[in-house]
């Protein structure tokens, strides 16, 4: 949910920039809605909670049917724009071979495809400066994921950080990120225990605050998760780690000015070694110059 929302941010940012004075209504899952809080041109934000019987589309239609839209864009492929009055309509369709943010751009005729962005406000940036003050470089570690098989072992995250702090980023500090809730806290606990001096940001931030904090880091290393996509969108060098459904991986590869990942086949995150991750980190750091 969060990753999909991040992948939509680039085209929205470009559309607003090329339409001064535009008033934008965004519909997004509740878990991702905060990402759009500081989007330029935002007029209304509608949180849409998905339902198994698909009734959420009917509820969204009821929210928007009374408006005459200049532009209706559906990046989920539901066909909703055809059920409202709109001067122009764009409905996403599968585009094999293109990454998700590139598909969005192709749908709207944007070339080259604008990279995802992360919007923040002054309050979020001020809090990030307090949590991650100027000083030695900070490495963001994102050890959680939506399900356990997507999580790289905590001891390898810790070993990777120690290597980076001793060589590529001398004297670096660790910051551990994670979402709200007991499951995220439980998933991050082994890494926090292994790195007792780390900055603990698990469950402590809104999504714009997450983006502001990640933007102050020198490097982010993350399992395939929403945090990975937010980090890449901020422009910080970002390495993603993934070892499941490799046939689908190209579509959701992290997109940023210095982003990449270590991808393995076989659905086993243990197949990714610390050496592999260290090499990947050096590559994205080199990309950032």
Automatic annotation (TrEMBL):
Gene3D superfamilies: Glycogen Phosphorylase B. It holds the Pfam family Glyco_transf_9. Signal peptide: none annotated. One of its GO terms (molecular function) is ADP-heptose-lipopolysaccharide heptosyltransferase activity. GO terms for biological process: lipopolysaccharide core region biosynthetic process. InterPro entries: Glyco_trans_9 (IPR002201), LPS_LOS_Heptosyltrfase (IPR051199). GO terms for cellular component: cytosol. Keywords: Glycosyltransferase, Transferase. This is Glycosyltransferase family 9 protein. The lineage of its organism: Bacteria, Pseudomonadati, Pseudomonadota, Alphaproteobacteria, Hyphomicrobiales.
